[in-house]
């Protein structure tokens, strides 16, 4: 299997995400086709004027807008080509100079002059120029951008050109086999129309935390990035963003960001100039078959809470390490990706109901969501102070144990001395590797692999470091309630 090629450069590879917004004006007179279109001429004629070419210029500097290399799972089929593009983890340098055709975009609000494109298309630009199908050009200003989804919202003077907008449709209604049309500016050839079908849905290509691509065989090439993918009603149901290709040209495997994901981001960028995603304040991991079996679950579904961010919305006992999240705000949760998207799309400050399994008992917990961006700022501040790369956690799930900070309250609860230092084990899963080695609630983890630990975060980081080194076992020094020390070896897989 070949890896996804980026649409944004003349390099061999492309990685981008694009999205669009909700307000639209022009109604597109076209009936949905159920048996495949005999011709799409009328549909294309009504849509072409809403799709634009975008070029930029820079006074100096270089780079691709600080586009990060996608985090790909080890052994991913995409790894080879992304590595070619992002040499040493960084994209190739772009020479400063006059503007050149970089990508596509489309008008979503003719009265306000709002255009949507990819963030990477306009990132670091000193001047953004919108090129229309009739050859005219107008300058645009950046309203807001989101690096996580690679979306940017632009604004032009609506009086400077006669604008035509296109509406968003519901990507969730698209079925595999439905006809779609792509319009964009591949290789600088403006106003190019291609037709295909929805080949697959919910594709993950490792490009970001909200991967959920529509796959299509409509021909998409470099320069289509930021352009719309239409249904046969002329509604935007996706944003063309990446391709798989050995040469950079289309071989019939392209990816588009679904409109359902795009609309919320674009609306926030229009209103605030930035995103405001919900934040639950937990560390999560998939429920594997092994975890499901150890917890007595019927199936490996839901999301395991492995840690609670200190000071986050779920702190203070609302959620605990070891909880299994099975529902969020009335929706069933089957996996990590589904929970991440559901939380991010929820309004900041909203009180949501989280359905969990705790020690086999189903219960509901009400939590007021925080703002993800504020949580990230806390993490950055923590990293700058040398406290780790993430917000400190007050409790965590580790090798079959629930561990927590050694506070005065917990010293009293487990009858521990003032001299005890480390992290306290508050609970041990029955049948876990820790239970088999005789670890008990009230034991204190003093060291992991001969390195002292003083917080749940340090314990998590130390175990992760051992795994990265290829180690299979972790050597723990434990202190009992009486202060007696002993070593145990716990298998990490």
From TrEMBL:
One of its GO terms (cellular component) is periplasmic space. One of its GO terms (molecular function) is serine-type endopeptidase activity. Residues 1-26 form the signal peptide. Residues 281-360, 366-493 form the PDZ domain. Gene3D superfamilies: 2.30.42.10, 2.40.10.120. It is found in: Periplasm. Substrate binds at residues 120, 150, 223-225. It comes from the Bacteria. NCBIfam families: degP_htrA_DO (TIGR02037). Belongs to the peptidase S1C family. This is Probable periplasmic serine endoprotease DegP-like.
């Amino acid at each position: 299997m070949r890896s996804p090629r980026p649409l944004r450069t003349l390099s061999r590879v492309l990685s981008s995400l694009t999205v669009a917004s909700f307000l639209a004006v022009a109604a597109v007179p076209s009936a949905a086709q159920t048996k495949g279109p005999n011709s799409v001429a009328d549909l294309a004629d009504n849509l072409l004027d809403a799709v634009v070419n975008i070029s930029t210029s820079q006074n100096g500097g270089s780079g691709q807008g600080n586009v990060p290399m996608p985090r790909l799972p080890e052994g991913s089929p995409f790894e080879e080509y992304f590595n070619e593009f992002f040499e040493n983890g960084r994209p190739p340098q772009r020479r400063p100079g006059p503007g050149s055709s970089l990508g596509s975009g489309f008008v979503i609000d003719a009265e306000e002059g709002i255009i949507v494109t990819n963030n990477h298309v306009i990132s670091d630009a000193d001047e953004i120029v919108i090129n229309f199908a009739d050859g005219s050009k107008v300058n645009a200003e950046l309203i807001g951008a989101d690096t996580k989804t690679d979306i940017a919202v632009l604004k032009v003077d609506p009086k400077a050109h006669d604008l035509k907008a296109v509406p968003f449709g519901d990507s969730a209604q698209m079925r595999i086999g439905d006809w779609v049309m792509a319009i964009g500016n591949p290789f600088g050839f403006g106003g190019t129309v291609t037709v295909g079908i929805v080949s697959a849905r919910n594709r993950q290509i490792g490009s970001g935390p909200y991967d959920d691509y529509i796959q299509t065989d409509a021909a998409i090439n470099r320069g289509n990035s930021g352009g719309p993918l239409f249904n046969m009603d002329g509604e935007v149901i996706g944003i063309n963003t990446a391709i798989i290709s050995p040469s950079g040209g289309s071989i019939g495997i392209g990816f588009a960001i679904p409109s359902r994901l795009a609309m919320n981001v674009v609306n926030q960028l229009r209103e605030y100039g930035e995103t405001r995603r919900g934040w639950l304040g937990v560390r999560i991991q998939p429920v594997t078959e092994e975890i499901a079996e150890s917890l007595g679950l019927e199936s490996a579904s839901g999301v395991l809470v492995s840690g609670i961010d200190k000071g986050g919305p779920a702190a203070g006992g609302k959620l605990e390490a070891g909880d299994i999240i099975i529902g969020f705000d009335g929706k069933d949760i089957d996996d990590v990706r589904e929970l991440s998207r559901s939380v991010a799309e929820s309004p900041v400050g909203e009180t949501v109901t989280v359905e969990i399994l705790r020690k086999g008992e189903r219960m509901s917990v009400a939590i007021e969501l925080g703002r993800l961006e504020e949580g990230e700022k806390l993490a950055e501040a923590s990293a700058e102070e040398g406290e780790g790369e993430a917000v400190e956690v007050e409790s965590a799930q580790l090798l079959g144990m629930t561990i927590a900070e050694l506070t005065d309250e917990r010293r009293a609860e487990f009858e521990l001395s003032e001299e005890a230092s480390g992290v306290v084990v508050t609970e041990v899963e029955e049948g876990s590797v820790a239970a088999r080695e005789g670890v008990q609630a009230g034991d204190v983890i003093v060291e992991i692999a001969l390195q002292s630990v003083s917080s749940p975060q340090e314990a998590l980081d130390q175990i992760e470091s051992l795994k990265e080194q290829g180690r299979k076992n972790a050597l723990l020094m434990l202190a009992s309630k009486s202060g007696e020390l002993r070593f145990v070896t716990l298998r990490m897989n």
